């Protein structure tokens, strides 16, 4: 991948957002939207606090951006997100015309850009977008593991085993390894 | 093991697995006509029975000096494979020998669906089998395998492991991967069939009111709560009076103006906001209610009916929406997201909204008009149609690989002998473009 350091710089910012999510007991997924080298929006997962299962990092950031900017801005904007966008976010991003998506690790439970489905490039009335995975993949996975361990420590004894099983669920199994950068 | 069916398999570089899978899905007629969901679609060479493994191009032991470690035959670790990026850093000279890529074996389909010549022709157009534009990587050898595979799912975990050793990696699933239990479906149907028409009509009106303001396309949805929930645990013991009530209604408001006064309805067409699709809005309204139920009364008002929160628009925009949104009396306490609630949508929702409904744990969804080019719920694809005209075919509410499933119905009105329903349909506003995502 060209300009790898450039992309890593923004992914580091996304990881900072994910760390913030971890501190507030949210699944640690974070993202930044970048236009002309400038971060125009940041988001972290907010499903637990909002009691809304759709408040993923990407949608939280889009919500923030749209308060100030027109939706047309996404056509010139790239997304950096620590975990592959889910099927929902992958579709919403496509409907906004996002330029490209860079992500850390795959999401094999409901990934929408290669982990489970390929919403970014399937036949659709909306323009497809390219995705690039694997930037700081290990860091993204470590954050998720820390989250599940943290949740396990809070859970009462009998639930421990069940909760512990969760921790590998996010890891790619059938489709292993990010696509080439 | 029962009946066997001969299937094709092909080894491909792991990074091309989605590309190749999508290609064969698109190119082979009736690809999914025999659901082999108990067989791994993609399997690492290491997990194949030895007699299959030796037939793979990757087991050909010609020297590969640059990268012996990715030889997949030796990978016996059951854990996640570590990814090694095969890309060389920009500017470095091309490798002298092509490193062997990590591979995976794709189970294509039963052989009666497509001839081996035709399948070879289809596959040879896929990236991994073509010379790369930079000529830095040589094409991967295309070799079609034929193997007998068990046609029916295993009934025990033991059977699955033994078939994995003798035939093909097989999965045992306790839950039924082919759909909900027929008894669950028929009880659900008997509960919704008399009321679905009423709720869909309300959904349509809700959307219409927003449309008249120039905010949306006229789609709407209704979220309903039913006594006893949908899993029926308590119901058999307590035959009390059954009820159902509307929790929230929302209209599509994708063109609602931004707070700064730009993007008004007049300039709307260029700037559509999918976060304000009807389903997205209604889900957010339920979340607001749950927040309000858990907070002190002084904050309730703020949570339920303050100024519109652009771009989510989770507060009511019309009196009809406010009627249901501005109270918490129409939602049970202690619920989780939209678990046990029912979703009625005037049109088949888009991929984003359908997955939002799954994330919210809806177990039942009824929609009115089929959206042939954008709808995410119908699983069937019309054969012989190009691009998205035949439907997307996602069947998103019952995908074995997703972590939540639900029941879906498309509601079709029975036409009275006097044709009154038909007239009503024709009398409605002209339908919006089929290109539109709902
Ligand atoms: Zn998401
Ligand atoms: Zn939608």
From TrEMBL, chain A:
It is an enzyme of class 3 (hydrolase). InterPro entries: APOBEC/CMP_deaminase_Zn-bd (IPR016192), CMP_dCMP_dom (IPR002125), Cytidine_deaminase-like (IPR016193). Residues 152-168 have a biased composition (Basic and acidic residues). Pfam families: dCMP_cyt_deam_1 (PF00383). GO terms for biological process: tRNA wobble adenosine to inosine editing. One of its GO terms (molecular function) is zinc ion binding. This is tRNA(adenine(34)) deaminase. The lineage of its organism: Eukaryota, Fungi, Dikarya, Ascomycota, Pezizomycotina.
TrEMBL record, chain B:
Coiled coil: none annotated. Residues 198-368 form the CMP/dCMP-type deaminase domain. GO terms for biological process: tRNA processing. It holds the Pfam family dCMP_cyt_deam_1. Residues 57-90 have a biased composition (Low complexity). The keyword Chaperone does not apply. Keywords: tRNA processing. Residues 55-99 are annotated as: Disordered. GO terms for molecular function: tRNA-specific adenosine-34 deaminase activity. One of its GO terms (cellular component) is nucleus. Belongs to the cytidine and deoxycytidylate deaminase family. ADAT3 subfamily. This is Cytidine deaminase-like protein. It comes from Lineolata rhizophorae.
